[in-house]
Amino acid sequence: MQQTNPAPTAPPKTAAAATEAPPASEPPTRGRGRTKRQPGPDDVAPGLPVPGEHQQTLARSFTIGGLGLHTGEYAYVRVRPAFADEGRYFVRVPEGTNSHRFSIEEARPMGVEDETLQGGRMTTADEDTQVNIFCAFLEDQDRGFEGTFADWTKTVLGDREEAYSVLDWFEMEVPDEEVQERAPGEGITACLESVEESCGFYTQLSSGDDRIQGVQSILSALEACGIDNARIEIEGGCELPIIDGSPLGWCINIHKSLARPAFRPDQLTEACPRQVLNLKQPITVQRGNSFISLYPSDRPRLTVGIDHHIDAPIIGKQWVTWCPLEDEHFRWTIGAARWYAPTGQHLIAMREAGYIQGGTEGCCIIGFGDRWYDESRVRYINDEPCRHKMCNLVGDLALLAQPGRGGMPLGHIIAYQPDHDLQLQFLAAIRQASSDDDYVPYNVVMAKMIEDLSRMADVEAHMAEADQSPYLADDQKPGTPQNPTIIPPQPNRQGS
User: Fold this and answer.
1) Distance between CA atoms of 201 and 232, rounded to whole angstroms?
2) Which of 7, 115, 242, 443 sits 20 to 30 Å CA-CA off 287?
3) Contact, 242 vs 359, CB < 8 A?
């Protein structure tokens, strides 16, 4: 029987994120603009970026604007490529540096659909439509659609104008953007040493008089997508935009901007190796009933648990496990999980304490006893709050990154009822227990995993040949005594 692709779905109506388009007045530089061409039959969507054996950065910049959840201040954030070993770092830029890349209609209360804003100069369809169509294509790929992007747009959009606009936007032949070298001491490095004392609700970094708060979402997306080096420019408020309450907007823009190898300024053709932390002994931090533990392993794995069975029965007790080397990409598995509040009273108390001065109801899912205040906002029906906690954990683990070294360590990390305070204590314990000898090349990790998978495949093939599959129940294996079949006596149908 010939296998057919699932029917593609129509593009969603809500924008996921906005990306950068340079203004017409700005002179073109290498990596800006788009090289027009007719899409070919072999055009396929670029895969979601993941950590690799070499350091990576973005191929080109993107810009997002939005309100900070706790400050209520508006900020423009431009994420740009960086050289190898520069790491991820935040730079405050003067007013007007990046704000011209967006057009804002007017000051007004903003809904979650508006948080990411439209980009600057468009082609024939606005940026929202372009992003939504591409997101729909990615989702259909996840459901099993095997055609090219051109096939998908033809199937879903036919000859509509949006199809040609999106194919222009989805351009694989754009040159890499030039990189601005980091000046000595410039900006705030996204590392453990830059962390200020946390309030538990967000992670704040500082250097001198500069401070940046709410960095966990963007760092979780950069870490999970393997963007080891990035220059993050912030104009306006000191808090990063909440967007839709999840790292999804950052993930989509990273995917759209593409990842590429990061080079050093004096070695523009030589890829730089990447290492990962591989501790040999367990580590645990605990505060009351909450704890975070790391157990040595040959691959990274996260398990997070929360308990709201008393204050929010709709949440109850939840556990989620994710292994980036085994499971689906961060963007699909946990990256779309929104920030949550167990109850409305919880939000009121936070606001009275000086938090939640911005944002909207749409960036948060709110528990209301045994149901959600707005069920339509829930993306993961069974465990979205727990998945969002895992997003925060990934974002804080990114602070373990050092030049040429990833943030998320190898090992099984189990976190129960974690918050940013406890996670930062956990990072400090890891840093104290580790040394340079505990770092291994990432290609060694991948080689070990491939070897294990190959060995497992060989075992399964051998067992299958011997008809001794380890996955068969005992009574299904050949030679296993079977229970006798009892045939009930039949009545004598002959006449007497």
Assistant:
1) 22
2) 242
3) yes
Q: What is the pLDDT of residue 448?
A: 79
Q: Which of 14-18, 141-145, 361-365 shows the lowest per-residue confidence on average (mean pLDDT)? A: 14-18
From CA 82, how far away is CA 264, in angstroms rounded? 9
CATH 3.30.230.20 residue ranges in the chain?
Answer: 56-261
Question: Per the structure block, which two tokens stand in for 374?
Answer: 């707005």
Residues 6+ apart with CB under 8 A from 130: 162, 165, 166, 169
Question: What CA–CA distance (Å, rounded) separates 155 from 159?
Answer: 9
Q: Is the pTM of this model over 0.85?
A: no
Yes or no: say if 395 and 203 are a contact pair by the CB < 8 Å rule: yes
CATH no. for 56-261: 3.30.230.20
pLDDT of residue 362: 82
pLDDT-wise least confident of 135-144, 343-352, 421-430 = 135-144
User: Using one digit for the tens of pLDDT, what is the confidence trace for 85-129?
Assistant: 999 999 999 988 877 776 544 434 434 333 333 333 333 444 556
Q: Report pLDDT for 470.
A: 57
pLDDT tens readout for residues 23-58? 444 433 333 333 344 445 555 556 789 999 999 999
DSSP state of 47: P
Nearest to 34 by CA among 157, 175, 202: 175
Determine the pLDDT at residue 335. 95
- Report how far residue 421's alpha carbon sits from residue 425's, in angstroms, rounded to the nearest whole number: 6
pLDDT per position as a tens digit, 269-312? 899 999 999 999 999 999 999 999 999 999 999 999 999 999 99
Which 8-state DSSP code applies to residue 274?
Answer: -
Distance separating alpha carbons of residues 357 and 364, to the nearest angstrom: 14
Query: CA-based angle 144:224:432, to the nearest 5?
Result: 150
- Regarding predicted confidence, which is higher, 175 or 300? 300
For the range 199-207, what are the long-range contacts, defined as Cβ-Cβ under 8 Å and sequence gap of 24 or more?
Answer: 199/355, 199/420, 199/421, 200/419, 200/420, 200/421, 201/70, 201/350, 201/355, 201/419, 201/420, 202/69, 202/70, 202/239, 202/420, 203/395, 203/396, 203/399, 203/420, 203/424, 205/90
Superfamily of segment(s) 275-444: lpxc deacetylase, domain 2 (3.30.1700.10)
Alpha carbon of residue 286 to chain centroid: 27
Residues of the chain with CATH 3.30.1700.10: 275-444
Q: Report pLDDT for 46.
A: 66
Please say whether the beta carbons of 427 and 216 come within 8 A: no
Q: Are 15 and 132 in contact (CB under 8 A)?
A: yes
